[in-house]
């Protein structure tokens, strides 16, 4: 039995234009013509269309479908396996986005609502990149520090965020001044700034021992999105992320050495401050 293009479009759930496109692309050409020259599709054509629509639903591009249909025994399985892998990756990505969205909803439900103007006044140019948040959530999913950090962030009031961001801005000004003055990254001034940053994290988010601070600094050096949470792009200088990374590592080295030495003495760091990072 033969069917017109309009009939096929109606019961296949596609448009006539789509069928014409498949014909022009050589993907599905009707096997017959009416006396008036109109396209007519037979049962074999409909079976082929069903295959095309199945592969399209899986997201396989038309050239990939053409390759599968041209040599199904050799290509279909591999194409399907490749698509299965990509769909799995996309499902995982969407799951991570859903988790980040859930956390964002939890923050919103704390009642700390801000107008766009208030958000700009508090956060300025600092913007939280969703793609980085997703990757960070996956990377630190099993970290107690990550869970504590998210919980404490959700509990901050609007005034807490104002104080937190003002403290960060003051620290950033000092960091830029030290960098512009050519202070060595392993010097006292840079080390003090690295320690201030570590204690800032401890005050507002989670306990931050030197080893954790190293890992955070590694992200600053490796990922511009992470560093933009500390220094917005308009204030960045070439080499600044590497400078902060080196300063944090140098400070962590000193504190680790002091803690090791302190175990055989008073049990306190050479600065006379506790090493836990929990100054409240």
From TrEMBL:
Q: Give the keywords, sorted.
A: Activator, Coiled coil, DNA-binding, Transcription, Transcription regulation
Location of the region described as Disordered in the Swiss-Prot/TrEMBL record = 254-280
Q: Which residues form a coiled coil?
A: 77-104
What's a Pfam family this protein contains? MerR_1
Determine if Transferase is one of this entry's keywords: no
Residues covered by the HTH merR-type domain:
2-71
Spell out where the chain crosses the membrane: none
Q: Which organism is it from?
A: Kitasatospora arboriphila
Question: What is the protein name stated in its UniProt record?
Answer: MerR family transcriptional regulator
